[in-house]
Specification:
By secondary structure, the chain is α/β, with parallel strands linked by helices. It has a domain of 63 residues: Orthogonal Bundle (DNA polymerase, domain 1). The protein has nine helices and nine strands.
Length: 303
């Protein structure tokens, strides 16, 4: 774990600090149409403010472009800069949440550009495989639903499959055709987990495992802790209550930060909401500590 990360609930001076006006209405895992969400960044912020959220993070896949499109006035909403970065461990997908990074960091920019190009090339290969099965889809049809950056993810292909009547819903598209190791699946280019963690740390950010309950192998969490991860997304809508408690225990034993988010995308097939997530005091304390540490680093970075 990075030396500058002070464990859950601790700040850079090593003291536990309980803010009088700590955030309680939080959601640190939200997607916009820059990646595979439905709402634009401005629309998402508007909805978050209407819901009374106090602290959010937009965590689009492998892109921070949403932050260039935010409305000029965010008050009273606070935003912790974020991104959900794809990575690989032992041949399996691992998603890493990057919080508080300097998104002008050159290495981080190069990574996002690599993923942008790689996803496009992957999509072309997947469309070719679908065509061999009689499911003709053009790249332009997919780009049309892929958002401003044309960052193509599999749900975009699924959307076109639904529109053309090839499948009834996204679940069917993934289960029959484009899910992991299905007939039209092509792996996307991904860096190793340890490389992504280093990139995040070098950009001044915090690296956390996204939805650890979805790891292919539960033991991977300990491998990744040894690589220097800073925390866990302990609460996620796909986590059972027993999993949440287990992840809290793991985080506390290893001095890790804890976060929570609904993984909001906006489509009806996902069990996620654009609203605050109701979590325990210990998780809220850690999130508030993360925010305070981010603000301290930001001030140090700009001074």
């Amino acid at each position: 774990m990075a030396d500058s990360i002070p464990g859950a609930g601790k700040l850079n001076n090593g003291m536990i600090k309980k803010e009088i006006n700590s955030f309680r209405r939080i959601n640190l895992h939200l997607h916009t149409n820059v990646s595979d969400g439905i709402l634009s960044p401005a629309e998402l912020v508007k909805e978050a403010k209407a819901k009374g959220l106090e602290l959010i993070s937009i965590t689009d896949h492998d892109s921070a472009d949403a932050y260039k499109m935010l409305p000029p006035t965010l008050t009273p909403l606070n935003i912790l800069p974020g991104m959900e970065i794809s990575s690989m461990h032992k041949g399996h997908d691992v998603h890493i949440l990057a919080y508080g990074c300097d998104f002008d960091n050159q290495a981080l920019i190069e990574m996002t550009e690599m993923y942008l190009v790689g996803r496009r090339e992957r999509a072309q290969k997947m469309l070719k495989l679908l065509a061999q099965m009689g499911l003709e889809i053009s790249l332009q049809e997919v780009i049309a639903v892929a958002g401003s950056r044309e960052l193509i993810v599999r749900p975009h292909i699924a959307q076109v499959m639904i529109k053309k009547g090839f499948v009834q819903n996204k679940n069917e598209a993934f289960d029959k055709y484009i899910g992991n190791f299905k007939p039209a699946f092509v792996p996307k280019p991904e860096l190793k987990v340890e490389s992504v963690i280093k990139l995040i740390h070098d950009a001044g950010g915090f690296a956390l495992i996204a939805h650890p309950g979805k790891l292919t192998n539960a033991a991977f969490i300990y491998d990744i802790i040894d690589m220097g991860i800073d925390g866990l997304e302990v609460w996620h809508p796909d986590h059972y209550p027993t999993e949440v408690e287990n992840f809290i225990t793991i985080a506390q034993k290893n001095g890790l930060l804890m976060t929570a988010g609904s993984d909001y995308h906006g489509d009806s097939e996902r069990n996620s909401l654009l609203d605050y997530v109701q979590v325990s005091e210990e998780i809220l304390d850690s999130i508030n500590a993360l925010w305070q540490e981010y603000k301290w680093r930001l001030n140090t970075r700009s001074s």
